[in-house]
Amino acid sequence: MKMLGKELIFISRIKRDGSGVEDCSGLNMENYSETKFEINCLSITEGTFIASEFNVFVVKKNVYGK
């Protein structure tokens, strides 16, 4: 499934070397609002997904819109 960045809530960014994640709260995510991400389920119970494009993020669907 593909979704635009403006349809997502960015939780954290997965480090490129795979060593962990970094918090997205200090990052300006407006640059990704029109970017199409490939979405794959991470946790059904938590409602989290992996969003991948050039960078990879842990996200939730934004059910309230922006």
Q: Could you characterize the architecture of this molecule?
A:
The chain is mostly beta strands. It has one domain (2-61). Helix content is 0%, strand content 48%. It is built from no helices and 6 strands. Strands 1-4-5-6-2-3 form a 6-stranded antiparallel β-sheet, with no helix packed on it. The radius of gyration is 11 Å and the shape is globular. The mean pLDDT is 91.
In short:
This protein has no helices and 6 strands. By secondary structure, the chain is mainly beta.
Strand content: over 45%
Using only CA atoms, what is the Rg? 11 Å
Strands of the largest sheet, in order across it?
1-4-5-6-2-3
Mean pLDDT figure = 91
If helices are DSSP runs of H or I spanning 4 or more residues, what is the number of helices? Answer: 0
- Could you give a short account of the major beta sheet? 6 strands, antiparallel
Number of strand segments: 6
Descriptive terms for the model:
66 residues; mainly beta; six-stranded antiparallel beta sheet; 48% strand
Topology:
Blueprint: E1 2-4, E2 8-14, E3 21-23, E4 36-43, E5 48-52, E6 56-61
Antiparallel strand pairs: 1-4, 2-3, 2-6, 4-5, 5-6
